[in-house]
Amino acid sequence: MIPFQMRPDEILSEARGFNEKLAKGVGNLMEVGDIPTGITPKEVVYKEDKLVLYRYKSEQPASNKTPLLIVYALVNRPYMADLQENRSTIRGLLDAGQDVYLIDWGYPDAADRYLTMDDYINGYLDRCIDVICARHGIDKLNLLGICQGGAFSLCYASMHPEKVRNLVTMVTPVDFKTPDNMLSHWVQNVDIDLLVDTQGNIPGEMLNWTFLNLKPYQLMAQKYLGVVDLMDDPKALKNFMRMEKWIFDSPDQAGETFRQFIKDFFQQNKLMKGEVQIGEYTVDLRKVKMPVLNVFAEQDHLVPPDASRALKKVVGSKDYTELSFPGGHIGIYVSGKAQKTIPPAIGEWLNKR
Amino acid sequence: MSTNSNNWNETLMNDWVATQRKYWDTWSDFARKSGVGGAQGPAANPFGAFGSFTANPFAQNPFMQNPFAQNPMGGNPFGGAANPFTGMVEQWWSSVKPQAQGDIGGVAQRFYDMGKSFMSMAEGMFGASGQEQPDAAMQMWMSSMQAALQQWIAQVQNNMDLATPDLPGVSGTTLNTWAQLADTLAPWLNMSQDYLKDIAAGHLPGGIEMPGLGAAQEQFCRALSVPGLGYTREQQEHIQQLARHLLTYHEAFRAYKVAFGKTALASLESVQKRLQDMHAAGQKIESLRALYDMWVDASEEAYGEFVMSDEYQVVYGDLVNSLMRVRKDMNELAEQHYQLMNIPTRSEIDTVQRRQQEQRRENRHLRREIAEMRAQIEQLAKARPEAARPRQQQAKAPAQDRLPIDDVAEDLTAIKGIGPKMAEKLYDQGIKNYAQLAAMNTKFAEQLDEALKAQGRILRDDWIGQAKKLLG
């Protein structure tokens, strides 16, 4: 009946082996020391409040004269795109001839709770774009948004199309009501006004906990079991620790921005309907007419691929390209295969335009 | 940190490895002597010392349900050790924990949680494999997990539960983390079990006495809705409201737990089904690791299905909302006290911050407008000396970038609306011929109009069109 074929002594021996590996492994873990993240050299170009705009340094001058600005999600730290030597989307983009800038939003505190999406997109983001354009003496640049940052970039491109030459969205949700969207399913019955009015900023811990609970068995247990076998390799262990550090390094989210993002995007799916109101603008994706490259992961448990694919139906651009990758939400930045294919493909696409 | 960890590696590690070796050797020895190790050997149960599972159903996680404890055969070489496999992990952890801090400590903790969970599964397997009929024993092990979960669900439904279990196979997950999260959001909630008892007995905070809960919650809730009286009326009302909301929160948490217990049951069923399918297909599991992986897959699938249900959406939302209501009440009560003490409150600071942010936003808008206006003024100012340095000026001012640079002078008074004076003014601006006038765009024409104080004549009299006609 039970297809389990182990004798007690075999069980003992496996348990013993595991226990020893675990103990030695955690011994090695304590030797890991500092875990540096973000490896590509960069310089500060502009600062405002807690925001820092970086420009990445490249060994050879960029062949593409239009600079590329990366906009990351507020929920996470941006070093996922520059994790380690052989796993850096940013390094890949530099190698593909791009002049790369990135916005680090920093860690908002209680005094930042009234930052709205208007402040983030028509304020911070717009000013960063002005700074870059002024530096290069140009009117428009290339914009690359990741996850929530992708949604922000879409909004920006619809409100200020004259400043965006090409738009790249990566693992970006557009349709928040696809049937497989677990996060969206969970928040439909949550009183967001009550939550934000009471809580102010939304703790990163709470957001992180929510993400881990999308797949608790894998993300909170099995993952660590798999690593036990790698723990005698200090390099592999250090790489694992970098990921681990990133996953649990979640800034709080400004209350007012969270309120609008969850209510308008997750609960009411207004981005699809062209009803999102940001400051004085109504976000209409039909106004996004510049070339668009939409990159998504086929096994994304956070942003289901259909949520990204929906962009095709609503975007105004006639030059719309999709690039899908067989991997997950995070794998698209860190898997070896993704590193070899995705940044060069983005670079090539941009260079042609 | 490096000194510490070096010490740990050199001494503790060696000690630990030695202890481990001895420990597992003893086990193997024991297994051999008592015949547990042999496939045909007589059944023996080394887990005699396991506590009865009914006593503490969720000491660590449901994997730990060990039905073989009921019928100990042979001795346990470790006498008092309650859970020998996990006991080793725990012993090891207690020596590591003081050294593991910061980022690394957090990760080590997660490894430890996983290790405990994995080891308790190994324990269950080991117990089953030592039985006369391992198949039946495995079934029994699973059934006992199932029974424990059902029992726990019943306890929750009867409001007798205080502890929170884990999903079988994941230590420190959803329910536990939820409880921790609730604590971080509202630290006093972990006291709220006692607090609820107080409320149930009718002792409200702030020394207010109410009729006790007694048997009927409904009656109690009605008592909580009695309007407050007298000088402390407002505070009484707040406290009554808080008490009602606390009850609602605990109801919501209970509903969440029950739903959650059902998921754990569904996960178990899913595991059993996979085992049956594998059996039917003639597949075999040959390591603990393979069993664990299968367990995770099956459970994740069952969990995924449940959390996408309408039921989960409701219990999840209710839980978050009811927790927030309680927290809001607590904030309000705290603020009442602060106000009495003349201490600034969160709401007041919120008001200040909101206004400040509005002001900052407005400042940014104004700054931008001023910058734009400055640029316009500069453009207009630069339009004047154009005659002197036309080429450079033309390049810099975007509104007139299509205006041809040309010093050929023509009689501008041929255009209706331009008299000799106006013609002179135009010459001063560097506009001397029809081609230049014809090339103006509306924006430039407006700016020029303003600079010349032409009162809208340029567009009204259509100088651009007239110039075009004159050019043929």
Could you explain how this protein is built, in words?
- The complex is a heterodimer of chains A (353) and B (472).
- With 353 residues, chain A is α/β, with parallel strands linked by helices.
- Chain A is built from 15 helices and ten strands.
- Chain A has helices at residues 8-31, 89-95, 117-136, 148-159, 182-187, 192-199, 204-212, 216-228, 234-247, 255-267, 270-273, 305-309, 311-314, 331-334, 336-352, and strands at 42-48, 51-56, 68-71, 100-104, 141-146, 164-170, 276-278, 281-283, 292-297, 320-325.
- In chain A, the strands form two sheets. In chain A, strands 1-2-4-3-5-6-9-10 form an eight-stranded mixed beta sheet, with helices on both faces.
- In chain A, a hairpin with a 2-residue loop joins strand 7 and strand 8.
- The mean pLDDT of chain A is 91.
- Chain B has 472 residues and is mainly α.
- Chain B is 65% helix and 1% strand.
- Chain B has 17 helices and two strands.
- Chain B has a two-stranded antiparallel sheet with strand order 1-2.
- In chain B, a hairpin with a 3-residue loop joins strand 1 (203-204) and strand 2.
- Chains A and B meet through helix 1, helix 3, helix 5, helix 6 and helix 7 of A and helix 1, helix 2, helix 3, helix 4 and helix 5 of B.
Low-confidence stretches of chain A: none
> Percent of residues of chain A in beta strands?
15-25%
Distance between the termini of chain B: 87 Å
Average predicted confidence as pLDDT of chain A: 91
Q: Number of helical segments of chain B?
A: 17
Counting structural domains of chain B, the number is: 3
Radius of gyration of chain B, Cα only, in angstroms? 40 Å
Beta-strand portion of chain B reads under 5%
